[in-house]
Amino acid sequence: MGRVRRHGTAPIIAAEMLFSAPLLPGQHHVLEYETSDRGRSTTPRYARFVPKGTSSAVLSAVFHPSRVPARCFGRFGDEEQREVSLGADLAAHLLSLRQGAAPLELSWEWGEAAQPRRAPVR
User: Fold this and answer.
1) Angle, alpha carbons 38-106-52 (nearest 5°)
2) Cβ neighbours, 10 Å, residue 49
3) I need a surface site. Which of 21, 44, 84, 100 has the fewest CB within 10 A?
4) What are the distances in angstroms from CA 34 to CA 25, 80, 83, 116, 117?
5) 44-57 per-position pLDDT tens digit
6) Are the C-beta atoms of residues 107 and 44 closer than 8 Å to each other?
């Protein structure tokens, strides 16, 4: 992890990801990282910018059992927002296989369903 900057008034964080070596032309790198909000943001969305040339990207939002949204939605770029299911692990996932520079975004609505859920009995 390199430099990290948080915007003074907007819910935006910029972080520098450092690789162990420079990438050669045509070389790929798999990157996995996690961020944690810890209740600082009241914005009901989570987005990451997908750079041009990225072959695939996965975005996940995991909710605390005491704060579960009523509905979740996802979209890539300017496409229509679509509903995304919330799994028993209280996580919503969105996968993009499209190439092109655009944001990948998960959003959610709070409501009466934003209550603790019980895991299904297996």
Assistant:
1) 110
2) 11
3) 21
4) 27, 26, 23, 23, 24
5) 887 888 888 777 88
6) yes
Q: Which of 2, 34, 5 is nearest to 20 (CA)?
A: 2
- The pTM score is 0.65
- Rg of the chain, C-alpha, whole Å: 16
HEC assignment per residue over the chain: CCCEEECCCCCCEEECCCCCCCCCCCCCCCCCCCCCCCCCCCCCEEEEEECCCCCCEEEEEECCCCCCCCEEEEEECCCCCEEECCCCCCEEEEEECCCCCEEEEEEEECCCCCCCCCCCCC
